[in-house]
Write a structure and sequence with these properties.
Layout: H1 10-24, E1 32-33, H2 35-42, H3 46-58, E2 62-65, E3 69-72, H4 77-101, H5 104-121, H6 128-144, H7 149-166, H8 175-191, H9 195-225
Antiparallel strand pairs: 1-3, 2-3
Length: 226
């Protein structure tokens, strides 16, 4: 049983836990969420569970059904395409704005973040959660430099929706190393104040990710059909 911290409400606690279960894959895409089981496991009533599911549904992480309760939103090629279509446009804009405002100390921070990612990736037993968190930290720091809070908020939500797809990349040989090389190139372009080039490079970085994830999903579907 999970003990509820005194500084958050039961609903907030359940929401945080359920969200992590969905994003980590502990609750698999398409899986039915047993509200009674969740309530019992977390030591709460069903009311905060329902409230948490409402919030997750608003983020497109779960689907609510009138007679079947709730299920985790399935992964799909269309959903992936929709997310990355918007992400490419918004994140490209954020990188362009961030490049124009970049300070030397910001570039230093970004290079330190890349080194952190490299250290995590080269660890004898790489921590998937830590690698994903470090990657997110790097990107969100860049987007925060644009100094556009509304833009950043929308990007953060899109990242939450795409996190389950990004996890697919970690099992692909060479993907982490390739991503780190692209991160270095992105910071190099930003440091040179090549805003348009940096924006286009980031968009291509995202599109490459989308293509790899889509390819893996299609291969998995073909394997299941055999």
């Amino acid at each position: 049983m999970s003990r509820i911290p005194t500084f958050v409400t039961a609903s907030e606690h359940v929401y945080s836990i359920l969200k992590q279960w969905v994003l980590s894959g502990e609750l698999a895409p398409g899986e039915r969420i047993d509200q009674d089981a969740v309530a019992a496991r977390l030591g709460v009533s069903k009311m905060p569970v329902r409230s948490a599911l409402d919030k997750l549904a608003a983020q497109d992480l779960v689907l609510l059904h009138s007679h079947r309760g709730a299920t985790v939103t399935p992964l799909s090629a269309q959903h992936l395409e929709d997310i990355y279509l918007v992400r490419c446009n918004l994140e490209g804009l954020a990188v362009q704005l961030a490049t124009e405002l970049l300070k030397p100390e910001d570039a230093t921070s970004l290079n330190n973040m890349i080194q952190k990612q490299e250290d995590l990736a080269n660890h004898r037993n790489p921590d998937t959660e830590a690698i994903l968190a470090a990657n997110r930290e790097f990107h969100m720091f860049i987007y925060s430099l644009a100094q556009r809070p509304v833009l950043l908020s929308i990007i953060e939500r899109l990242w939450e929706q795409s996190e389950r797809y990004r996890r697919i990349l970690l099992i692909q040989p060479g993907m982490v190393d390739g991503s780190l090389n692209e991160h270095r190139r992105l910071v190099e372009l930003m440091t040179r104040k090549q805003a348009e080039e940096a924006s286009l490079f980031l968009v291509e970085h995202n599109r490459k990710t989308q293509k790899v994830v889509l390819s893996v999903m299609q291969n998995n579907e073909n394997s299941e059909e055999r």
